[in-house]
Every structure is written in structure tokens, then in C-alpha cells.
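The pair is quoted verbatim below.
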Amino acid sequence: MKKILSMMLVLMLAFTIMVPVTAATQASAESASVGAKVDQLNGNQNRLWITVTDVSGSFSQSYMIPNNAAGTYQINSDAGNYMVYVDTKGNTQIRACYIVSFFEFCDTVIKNGDVRTMDGNKTAEAVGIKGGKLLFIGTNKQAELHIGAGTSVIDVKGSVVAPGFIDIHTHADSGVTGANSIAENYLRQGVTTVLGGNCGGGSARSNVATHLTSAGNRGTGVNYGTLVGHQDLRSAAGIPNSVTNPSPAQVAAMEVLMDRAMREGAFGLSTGLEYDPFTSTYEVIATATIAAQYGGFYATHSRDERLYLLESVAEAIEISEQSGAPLQYSHIKADASVTWPKTDEVIGLFRDALARGLDVTADIYPYTAWSTGLSFVLGPYSRSQLTNANNNNPALLAEITDYVKWEVETFFDSNGALIQLVTYTDRSGNVYNAYTLADILAERGVAHTVDNVAALIIEILIHASPSMIGHGMSEENVVKKMQEDFVFIGSDGSLQASYRAGPHPRNYGTFPRVLGHYVRDTGALTLEQALFKMTVQPAKRLLFTDRGMLKEGYWADITVFNPNTVGDNAGFDMGRPPSGIDYVLVNGVVMVDDGVFVAGGSTERPGQILYGPGRVAN
């Protein structure tokens, strides 16, 4: 602040006449000093002056005290407002004078808000931003002292002013270096920071430095950091998927790559063990140990979220305990009705771990459907095996078909309506975006049987490999897990080019849905609980010291929303922007203005590239 004020004061800024005020409030006056002088005027009549001087002595200007009266005076400058106390004696001389405080003018002031600082129980009415950071948090009256001619004032008319939301589980790495880096679908949810590289692999591969440099050169609309995927380490170390027990030398090679990734700025290690079942527990412990040595954490899409759910949760906790890396369990769920009864046991495993002093947390998205590739239903078979079998191995094709039928019966309740395609065009050119398999069968006039659902899956996967949405979760279980203190919010989404049919609505509405459906409509969470899960908790996991709360000196990542109207509008049929997100600021730059996304087509990308603790330490 000294530097800024010295520069501004040296410009010989013009001051207006002093105005008496009732009291002074907080601030620092270290940038200037005050002196006094007395002029003789008309014989015995004295005229009292005070002089404000910056610390360098390069600027000084004097002010006449109205009526020679003692008191505290507000002195306006182009840089800010000085509060100066003057003690006079008999209206003829100055006994003492000093600067009580200095209120620097803000770039932006947000006023008339329900400010949730998330810093204990502190609340306020207004915040002020200067140079991308929070300069002031307080009352509307105090805010007036920070408003100058160049200050942009946003009157939010009672809306909630909260820290920008932090999404700890995204796949934004797939788009952060491309055309979608503006991150509109996240900004319109109130998300200002995202973490990519989840589920075991990502665009960073094992070269985190190159990836983050590319993202920085492209520019992002949100703050962005990444994990490094274990499968990417495996690939970079030249370990084929056929190797289920890597040699000590192979594990050592992965450890070297993990060490480099942490030093280049990764926040930790991720795995996608359900997609990479060949990965052994001990090799994950080895690489997670390296992450822990740099202060990183371990995020996992566990080995199974269905029949072996409990064993998979236990494995995740074991890896955390053995490696010393805090656990971030990804998208905690039971994704088929057959596993719903295991929910209480899953919660119990986490509670037991916490009771033992382990640092274990999880994230959840507020929907009863999950999403992955349709080839997931092939289980132990690959799509290449399917296409080869279709060409020249009828016996294997029948075997795969039988397995798919079992999948549909066991995990989708024999119901093709629970399997929805994201985008798909068949060989005849028919477009089936957002169609369920039951929809397709009905349109074709084919009976809805398990055999026909399985045959349709085989037909689609021989031709293409679309993404799918699985409608297999329980609302009761979603709420039960969301209410746990160790669970916070993460979308499991990615950067989207547009609002369109097909993609899971979590890409467009995760955070507004929590605030609308689970806070306002059902009361499953209080507002403070929800905000804590969106701000403070992920910030703590990421070891942020300047984001996640509204505090003076923190970056001005801010989301303003109307608690009466906030909510998601995206459905499983079509992506749509949410409602009630009024303003979003990233590092002080307005990206959503009165509900309108204002960054479209703009070259401004105010998001910062965020680096993990290993790089900070180096």
C-alpha cells in the first residue's frame, strides 16, 4: 500500500475541502504524515492549517481547518480518504494532529449484500476490491469511504455475497488449453477455481510443467490447477497394461516421474482404478508417498462402486494411511440399486478412519445419475475385442453379449431407460443425442426386453464409442452422504463449448442445484453448510492461503447469488444455464454481470494458473 500511495500522491492530486466527520474507523496511515502550522492574520486572528505529506517527502499539501475547530476531518484525494484528528487550544493553536486512518479508493465496491465471509461467523454488508484483491470488508457506511470517482459500484440489493466456488473434481484439463478455456459453464455456476487431472489421467500426462505453461499461454476464465494421473505415470514409464505387478525398477521409474510432477506444480496424485484394474495397490502407495512428501494429496476414482464398493473404499483409505497422503475420495456414490444398502457402511468406514486421525474427505455431485463411456458395460472385455469378435469370432461375440445382458440385469434393473446416450448417430444417420436405450427401441418399434437392450448396446459399440449416463443412484443416499461433514461438492464435469443436448447436467448446474434444491427447497443443508462445502473445505484440501474465504488481502474471487431464485435449469435432455447467479468475479474481474455472461468473445482471461505445494517449496 505504501508504494501505491506514494506513486499516487506524487502526482500532486487535487484535494477538496475538509468535511467534519463523527468518528474514524480502521485502516493504516503509514503512507503519509501530518504536520501543522499557524499563520498570523489581521493582527491577533490566527488561521490554523494542517499539512499532509507522503513518506518520501515528494508531496505535501496544506489544508485550512474550518473555524479553527478541533475534531476529526475527512480529507478527500484522488487516491483515497484521509481521516485526520486535530486538537486545538483556544482556537488559536494546534496542540496535536495526526492521521487516524486512510481509506484507499477501490476499483470495485459491492454493497448492500449479505456478505458470507466464511471466516468464522463474520458477516458484512460490503466488500471492496483493489488490484484484484480484497481491500475492504465491512458496512455500507464504511464502504462509502472507499468509493472514488473511478470506483465501479455494484449494488446487489440483498443478495448473498460469497467466496467464489472451488470445484476440486473436474476434467477441465481436457479443454483448458483450447477454445473452451473461458469456462463459461463453470463461471455461470459461480465457480472461480477448478482442479483437473482427476480419475487417473488427463491432458497434463506426466509433463505438468508443459501443460500448465500451455494453459497459461492460452489464458483461462477461471483459476486452474491439476493433479497428475497414475496411469499417465505408468505410460510414461513404459509399463504396459498387461503388467499387474511392476518390478522395483518400474516402480522407481514412476516415483521419479511423480517427484518431477510435484516439483512442476501438481497438487497430488489421482487414480482411476475402475478404469485401470491392472494397477496394483502397492505401486499406488509408492507414488502417493511421493505426493505426500511435497504436501500433496491422493484423489481416487476407486476400484469399484458397485459389488466391491466396501473393499474399494477400504483400499483407498489404506493407500492414504500407508502413504501419508490425505485422501480425496472422488464422487462418492453407490451407482446401482444393488449397492444402495451399503451406504451406511461406506460412511462408517470414513468415520472410523477420521476417528483414527486420518485426513480423509470425499466429494459428491447432486444428481442421481453418473456418466462414463458406454464401453464401461463391457466389463472385462475391451471394445477392440468386441469389434474383432464381431468380425471373426462368433463364440466370443456370444460370450460378450451374455456378459452385457448380465450387466443390464444386475446393475440397471433390466431397464434400458436407465442407460442414456450423450451423443450418438447410428450408421443410417439417425441422431440419438440424449436418448435412452428404451427410447431408441421404442422409436424402432422393437420390444423392450433385456435381450434387445443388450443387443442394442453391442450394435452401438461395434459402430461407435459414445458416452453414457447411468441413472442408477438413490436420492436418499445422495442426501445422506452430502450431509456428512467430510463430504464436499465437486461436479466431475468438464469445460463445455455450448449448452446442448446430451452432456450430464452436472456440467452446467452442480453448484446452483445444491443451493436451490438441497438448501432452499428441501433444507437438506443449511446455507452455511453448503457454502463451506464449496469454498473453505476444498481450499483447505488444496492448501490455499489466499482463496476460499472473503478476507482482506485474499484474491477477489466472488460469487453473488439470489438465494430465492438460485437453481439449476439443465436437465438430462438439454444443457441450460442456471438461474440466480447474479455476479461472478475472478481475481477482481467481473465475468458474470447482473446474470449476464460478459466474457463471451472477450480476450480477457483473468484466471490464474495455480501451482501445488511442491512447486511453491522450490
Q: What stands out?
A: The longest helix spans residues 394-411. Residues 163-369+472-617 form a domain with the TIM Barrel fold (CATH 3.20.20.140). The two ends are 28 Å apart (CA to CA).
